[in-house]
Specification:
- The chain is mainly β.
- Helices cover 0% and strands 45% of the residues.
- Strands 3, 6, 7, 10, 11 and 12 form a six-stranded mixed beta sheet that branches. Strands 14, 17, 18, 21, 22 and 23 form a six-stranded mixed beta sheet that branches.
- Keywords: Cell membrane, Disulfide bond, Glycoprotein, Immunoglobulin domain, Membrane, Repeat, Signal.
Length: 416
């Protein structure tokens, strides 16, 4: 829906060409978790304000590596593109060694140590033509790093063949989060993504239906996908799998292992709620929904995990994983599912007529989950320093003593 604002000159002055038509539209497709949706006020007599075809994205960067931040615009011949770093316009070949390749920003060797030379921070692409300016969504460059494991003593575990056993692992701090693997007997590597091996978000790995061949020494290993660096825990997990005929089976009530207590997923996506359990005999895992029931045609349970397809807001809520093997009391743990929606912006008014010198209030409806944060820009410059959320789903911006010069590009930056 388009807004049209017409600035009408005050009487008695009569001048031609003083009317300014302003349109309202969305330039950016919504994105999950971090989005930019723009309310554009443009002067129709000057043409369309810049439109982005590609914008920079936040990322972790390995030290001393090269990085290119893209910025592609429609009609580049009539558009001037500049870059901002931490709020200031970029200067080429300064201490930070920025280079402009066409409309992209290139950093030959990413630095992070010294403040004067550091390339860590917030980047924005600013596109300008005769109709106005537009700022891209902010993109953060941060140093990719992997810290060492915390020290701890060796761990000795014993399990009967045919039962499940959980191997704990506390991942080290990493940007981005590390991929966790297990090194077995100093050579082979298990990813925990297939077969009898089930990896969890906390770094642990559950071995289903343990076999005698699983006996050995296990060490947790973390891999940073950006730097390629890996670290291995100093402590060893000694696992011994015993034949069921060698010892009398011990009865053990279930112990549940959840990948997380809260899961976030987008509307329309598929998601998996992971739940594992050990115990003797092996527990049976079932799923229920607190205060409701599972969607009969959009869920399935595989290897103890609940798969939900084509999520809707109605799927949001608390889910219960139950493990029961007939020993003691059945064990139940809860997992919260939050269904998120990307920001969507709409306008109420099709046309506003305002006399020069009057005030005008611009209004948009903003929806999204979680509640988006909003800031208004005028020609790529913040119109306010406040980042706010919509009140009852509505955001407003007031322009007092309106002048023809108020025509331009007024986007609403919405992010989650």
């Amino acid at each position: 829906m388009n807004n049209e604002i017409m600035a009408i000159p005050e009487e008695p002055e009569k001048r031609e060409g003083t009317a300014t038509d302003l349109g309202c539209g969305t330039l950016h497709e919504p994105e999950r978790m971090k989005s930019l949706v723009s309310l554009i006020l443009v002067s129709s007599c000057l043409g369309m304000v810049p439109q982005f075809l590609e914008e920079p994205e936040s990322m972790a960067v390995a030290p001393q590596s090269s990085v290119t931040l893209p910025c592609k615009v429609r009609d580049p011949k009539s558009t001037v593109v500049r870059w901002k770093f931490n709020g200031d316009f970029v200067k080429e070949n300064d201490a930070k060694k920025f280079q402009i390749n066409g409309t992209d920003l290139y950093i030959e060797s990413f630095k992070h140590r010294r403040r004067v030379e550091s390339n860590e921070g917030i980047y924005q692409c600013i596109a300008r033509n005769e109709a106005g300016s537009l700022a891209s969504k902010p993109a953060r460059l941060s140093k990719a790093a992997l810290k060492p494991f915390k020290g701890r003593e060796d761990l000795h575990l014993t399990v009967l063949e045919g039962l499940n056993i959980n191997l704990p692992c506390e991942p080290p701090a990493s940007n981005p989060p590390a991929t966790i693997l297990f090194l077995v007997n100093g050579s082979s590597v298990i990813s925990g993504k297939s077969g009898r091996f089930q990896a969890f978000a906390d770094g642990s790995m559950l071995i289903h239906n343990a076999s005698l061949s699983d006996s050995g020494q296990y060490r947790c290993m973390a891999v940073n996908s950006v730097t390629g660096r890996n670290r291995t825990a100093n402590h060893i997990i000694h696992l011994q799998v015993l034949r069921s005929t060698e010892v009398k089976p011990l009865e053990k009530e279930p112990a549940i292992i959840l990948s997380s207590t809260t899961i976030k997923a987008g509307k329309g996506e598929n998601t998996v709620l992971e739940c594992g359990a050990d115990g003797s005999p092996p527990p049976n895992i079932t799923w229920d929904r607190y205060g409701g029931r599972l969607a009969p045609d959009r869920h399935t349970v595989k290897s103890g995990n609940l798969h939900i397809f084509n999520l809707t807001q109605a799927d949001e809520g608390t889910y219960l994983c139950t493990a029961n093997n007939g020993i003691g009391t059945q064990q139940v743990k809860a997992m919260e599912l939050n269904v998120e929606e990307p920001p969507v912006i709409t306008t109420k008014s099709d046309k506003l007529e305002v006399k020069a010198g009057d005030s005008v209030q611009l209004m948009c409806e903003v929806k999204g989950k979680p509640v988006p944060e909003i800031i208004w820009y005028h020609n790529a410059v913040p119109a306010t320093n406040l980042i706010t959320g919509p009140e009852n789903g509505v955001t407003t911006h007031t322009i007092n003593n309106i002048r023809k010069s108020e025509a331009g590009n007024l986007p609403v930056h919405v992010q989650q």
